[in-house]
Design goal:
This protein is of the alpha/beta class and 295 residues long. The protein has helices at 11-20, 60-65, 101-109, 111-118, 137-147, 155-167, 178-182, 190-200, 273-294; strands spanning 8-9, 31-39, 42-50, 72-77, 89-94, 123-129, 187-188, 206-212, 217-224, 245-253, 258-266.
Length: 295
């Protein structure tokens, strides 16, 4: 369970979402979009939009439904008429950079509970956005392209592919510029800093950090209070399969009856090369910041 201070989906939200999942409704009656926002410690429905065209044609409704300074979750329904495809929804977490720190913390720490209340199996994709531009269909489709799993490669093939990508990467991230990038100052958002403080106070078991590429800042993505089993070699936990992340986790040692902290640099091979290079370049500075924050 995420660290979420009793926040849950309201009865009205649960009912509205259940009705929207009814695939027997006609296309004109089906809800395309449900906007969810925190109101009095609950997620409430603040806006709904009906389907008018295909899910691609209606995608503009997402940008139209949000405001630059107001965080929200958006449940967006894809097109599906098959019973086995009832989980054809996207859950979008929109948290603008200007969002108040407490609001960022609440939205980041409540995702797991929201998914549990609405049914995690209903959502094919969980998508994060910091700006309205990132809510465009073009950017979303590019994100899906990066998600597509490539055919398994041997270690030698992976290294060759990665080297080729490095040569064609953004000029600022080319091998000749890597030393300069590595020395860049990394800025943390207030929400990320606040989450690290809670972690230091033993209030959280895990803090997941992501680089906001549009702002070049390390931001908070999610906080978790339960323990996870990292002994499983195939364990991926709550981390995305196609994007890097920085993770700070507290692990309990039953033998010594004590806890120790571990920093995880999560970087799947399917991540876009530019993101891999940015996260790799920032990693040392992120570790320094975390260490200084503990002192």
């Amino acid at each position: 369970m995420s660290h979420q201070s009793g926040i849950s989906a309201s009865e009205d939200l649960v009912k509205t979402f259940a009705e929207a999942c009814n695939i027997n409704a006609s296309n004109t009656d089906q809800i395309r979009l449900i906007k969810l926002q925190l109101k009095d410690e609950n997620f409430e429905v603040t806006q709904t939009e009906s389907a008018q065209g295909t899910w691609e044609e209606d995608f503009r409704k997402i940008q139209d439904s949000v405001k630059d300074n107001q965080p929200a979750y958006i449940a967006y329904r894809l097109d599906s008429k098959e019973e086995e495809d009832q989980g054809a929804w996207i859950l979008i977490c929109f948290v603008p950079e200007t969002t108040h720190v407490r609001q960022k913390m609440l939205y980041a720490s409540s995702k797991a509970t929201l998914l549990k209340d609405l049914g995690a199996q209903n959502f094919q994709v969980k998508y994060y956005a910091y700006t309205q531009d990132e809510l465009s269909l073009k950017v979303y489709l590019e994100y899906l392209e990066h998600q597509k799993a490539s055919a398994p490669l041997t270690q030698q093939e992976q290294e060759a592919k990665y080297a080729q990508e490095l040569e064609s990467a953004d000029p600022i991230l080319s091998p000749q510029k890597r030393t300069h990038v590595s020395g860049m100052q990394v800025e943390f958002t207030e929400a990320a800093h606040a989450a690290l403080q809670e972690f230091n106070e033993a209030s959280l078991r895990m803090v997941i950090l992501a680089v906001n590429l549009s702002e070049n800042k390390v931001d908070l993505e999610e906080t978790i209070e339960d323990s996870y089993d990292f002994t499983n070699a195939h364990y991926s936990g709550p981390f995305p399969e196609d994007q890097p992340r920085y993770v700070l986790v507290r692990i309990s040692d039953d033998a010594s009856n004590s806890d120790y902290n571990m920093f995880v640099y999560w970087c799947p091979v399917s991540s876009p090369v530019r993101q891999r290079m940015i996260y790799s370049s920032y990693r040392g500075s992120v570790l320094d910041y975390i260490q200084e924050d503990r002192d």
